[in-house]
User: What shape does this take?
Amino acid sequence: MPELPEVETYIRALAPLLQGKRIAGAHVYWPRTIAAPDAGAFVNLIQGRGFVHFDRRGKYMLFGLDSGETLVVHLRMTGELRVQPADMRPDKHTHLLLDLESGERLHYRDQRKFGRVWLVDDVTQVLARLGPEPLSGDFAPSGLAQALSGRTAAIKALLLDQSIVAGVGNIYADEALFHARIDPRRTGGDLTADEVVCLWQGVREVLTKGIELRGSSLGSGPQNYTPPDGLPGEAQEFHQVFRRTGLPCPVCGVPVQRVVLAQRSTHFCPSCQR
Ligand SMILES: [Zn+2]
Assistant: This one.
């Protein structure tokens, strides 16, 4: 599932392919893909709009249109967007197709169908509950400490809570906790002030590196994230613990362990992470 670095890579790759292009028409093949407005209204409203601005918030892609509206896309597990030549036919996993006046078409495909698309005047309709953007000044140790204060859930689970910090998913939560040398099973409220600072740094460090390396291309088939330009990410080459169960910790050599927390596989070094 794409996390912040993968979504950032995605929007950066799509921006030059879509900048200034106008939408001639839309086809919705699976209406539930469109979260708002309803699919019929979506098709009417988006026709004739041009792409002018590209941004990201957490794991959401934001496509600013010349009407002032925003097309918001969340890829969830297996969603993907590709700009394709006009003769590329939609297949059974194509749920939304945007015809561009340039003759190309933007395909939204999604094997698992969890991804969602919104067309909104005001993005807060979709993003209101998101916590701070981790690479911005809005994400600070003091705010993180406040958000974790008194919380009895495992710190790993709290890092996945998008209202505490936006954009972190399973990969980068495990890597950030290793960076901070914090056991993922600790309860959030038990972290010391110094540990919260280390975790804040860890989150920023692993996400920044993830973006530099164009995200993590992991898994196989539709679960394998590949940016729209087809060049795989390389962040997986630098994972310290994620999906490295049984392999030696790069710091101390003790085998990396796997446990399940909040129904998610969690990888950590039982010696380094306290
Ligand atoms: Zn270790």
